[in-house]
Amino acid sequence: MEQQLSHVRADGSAHMVDVTTKGTTSRTSRAQAVVHTRGDVVEMIMDADLPKGDALPVARVAGIMAAKKTWETIPLCHPIPLGKITVDFESDVAKGTLRVTTLVKTVGVTGVEMEALSAASTAALTVYDMIKAVDAQAVISDIRVLEKTGGKSGDWTVESTGDSA
User: Fold this and answer.
1) Burial class (CB within 10 angstroms; exposed 0-12, middle 13-18, buried 19+) of 88
2) Would you report the helix, strand and coil content of the chain in percent, each value rounded to 5?
3) Pick the catalytic residue: 49, 129, 135, 163?
4) What is the reported pLDDT for 1?
């Protein structure tokens, strides 16, 4: 059985999916983005000792704002009432990485994967903006959904699919 793309009509044109008949459920999504830089820059981030100031609070607020505005930047996303948004950071000086993880929750008719991804990527972009004066060659990678719960397609984590985080 061939699976149809939900955002494409039979004539090939894009449209916003009709979710008016879907049931309301509790839905969550976790996502990540990883900033690759140098160990000394990670230390500067964690010590709030960057030329532009303390990156983590700024990046956290940017990520939260991005999740709330996802429907305004991703054309076919629905506006969703978000009940919880978290943006957290995990540093590894030896590897020169800062991992951004986000969690978004709602009770609604559609999932929050795009909101979690928007939060993670925007927080990582904000970190890059804050460190570019000391490392313009930093790289953002590994932007991905780590976990999803609720809805018709069920629950999963990257661990349950055999992928690595």
Assistant:
1) middle
2) 25, 30, 40
3) 129
4) 45
Q: Which residue from 62, 95, 94 is spatially nearest to 52, judged by alpha carbons?
A: 62
The per-residue pLDDT for 163 is: 55
Interatomic CA distance for residues 5 and 16, integer angstroms: 11
Instruction: Please tell me the distance from the alpha carbon of residue 149 to that of residue 86, in angstroms, as a whole number.
Output: 16
Q: Residues 128-162: pLDDT tens digits?
A: 999 999 999 999 999 999 999 998 888 999 976 55
Going by C-alpha positions, the residue among 69, 82, 92 that lies closest to residue 27 is 82
155: annotated active-site residue = no
User: Which region holds residue 84: left if phi is over 0, alpha if psi is between -120 and 50, else beta?
Assistant: beta
Which is it for strands 97-108 and 156-157: parallel, antiparallel or unpaired?
unpaired
